[in-house]
Amino acid sequence: MTGPIFYWRGPAPYHFVTVPDEESADIRAIASEVTYGWGMIPVVARIGGTEFETAMFRKDELYVVPVKQAVRRAEDVEVDDEVTVHLRITRR
Hints:
By secondary structure, this protein is an alpha+beta fold. It has one domain: AF2212/PG0164-like (Elongation Factor Tu (Ef-tu), domain 3, Beta Barrel). It has two helices and six strands. A six-stranded antiparallel beta barrel has the order 1-2-5-4-3-6. β4 (50-59) and β5 form a beta hairpin. The two termini are 23 Å apart. The relative contact order is 0.30. The model has no long low-confidence stretch (mean pLDDT 93). This is DUF1905 domain-containing protein. It comes from Cellulomonas edaphi. InterPro entries: AF2212/PG0164-like_sf (IPR037079), DUF1905 (IPR015018).
C-alpha cells in the first residue's frame, strides 16, 4: 500500500499511514481472528529497507499503521511524504 505519513496528536502523539479502503475491508474481515485485544492487529511492516514490528488499529472505518521515529529517520521520511508500506499480519 502507498500513502502519505500523517501526524496525529491523539492520546499519544505519533505518525501513521492510513490503510486504503479495500485493504482495510480485507483486514476487518479477519480482524477477530488476528487481534490481540482492543482491536490491535500485530504486523511486521517494511518501508524501504527498514522492517519493524508494530500493531495497526482502526481509526474510523480504516486502519492506520504507526510509523516509528527510528523508521522515519532511517528512511528519511516525514509528514506528507508518500511511502510504500509492505504489511504482513502476524499472530502474537
